[in-house]
User: What shape does this take?
Amino acid sequence: MSFHDFGLDKRLMSKIEHLGFTEPTDIQRQAIPIAMTGQDLIASSKTGSGKTLAFILPAMQRIMKTRALTKRDPRVVILTPTRELAKQVFGQLRLFTGGSQFKAVLILGGENFNDQVKTLEKDPHFIVATPGRLTDHLTKGHFYLNGLELLILDEADRMLDLGFAKELTLINNKADHRKRQTLMFSATLDHAQVNEFAMALLNKPKRIAIGAAHTEHQDINKRFYFADDLMHKQQLLSHFLGKENFQQAVVFTATRADTERLANELAQQNYSTAALSGDLSQGQRNQIMESFAKGQQKILITTDLASRGLDLVNVSLVINFDLPKHSEEFVHRIGRTGRAGNKGDAISLIGPKDWQSFKQIESFLQQSFSFDSVDGLKAKFKGLKAKQSTKDKVKAEQASKKKQSKVKPHKPKVSKKTFFAQDAGDMPVLKRKKALPPSEIDSEEIPEAE
Ligand code: AMP
Assistant: This one.
């Protein structure tokens, strides 16, 4: 199948050719024809699968081929969970609106409110936005949604996880349902709130599940290393940054403090490093992301902020300095590499504190991973044994009791007299603390290595 089979306007086709895309990706192949018929859609697709064009192309086609319902209202609204992803989507949209009569604007939290009011007064056809700020403008009457034809929710699961349910509901309620089409994209469809929202917002949606979030990303080589403590992790990080062959790397940490500390550390080792953490202003974040995307630094250190949707084509190495708490986040993080057919490496450092997340990731991905090691930097830590659940413990105890009851008890031949004599004494046998059944011993954790 080629892009020609969709029956897209020839101006769109020439832009696609210009971008050098010859074949649609899976999500594009399945989503574009459905979206072009005007039906609602809920689709899952893995990161880097080409989902942005899967909604931009039908949106453009619709705007180019049909008349607007109102003169001033936006015709398409695209919502994303993070500012970074919104900018990314906006960038791709501009490739298509550029040179046409259609205006697209970007409305993000953290940026100048009054400038945005002026931007909205220009009656754009497309708005790409984060939900919080767009809702602010909507409730203040800076624009209306009576003419909205297409509402696109990108990474809906993440928007809901971030607590944007109220904003999404408000935006949905302000737009006319009868005339509107809704396309909802989510990393996973296996998410109760996403399904609840899909029922409320979508009209008999078609469902597409491509490369469910837990399927392996074939182009990414995942490697795991044990680490004893922070110091050890830092040594491993320096080792990999020195030894691995990569264009650009993203290092993920659990906390902002670690982000800053590692950035300083690596700067001292003369690596060109950018650090992205939540307490920066939006302007600073934009600057950092832009300069990293242009290749001005080799390494980006960040918390989960940058893990979703960002299209950083030169990133060929992801290092999880710490593992994320949620398994899906792991998939998103490593999805920063191996994009659009490129090969990538994802290295994860697993210390005692990461162990639980590691086991969850294994069960989420339905795989078990083996560990590699670096000569001279081998860890003492080798993982923790699983804690038994209370239910399992009770079962094990019952089984052990049953076993014991089958063994004929050894009855020492003692006379009543002897027994009383023992009873009156210190009773060494009868008072001894009961030995733990084997199941209990197994359930104990191996202590963390120093
Ligand atoms: P996305 O999943 O939308 O973030 O897209 C990931 C990357 O794939 C972006 O760099 C897109 O420009 C690129 N891409 C999108 N569609 C195609 C295609 N049909 N062929 C090759 N690359 C594509």
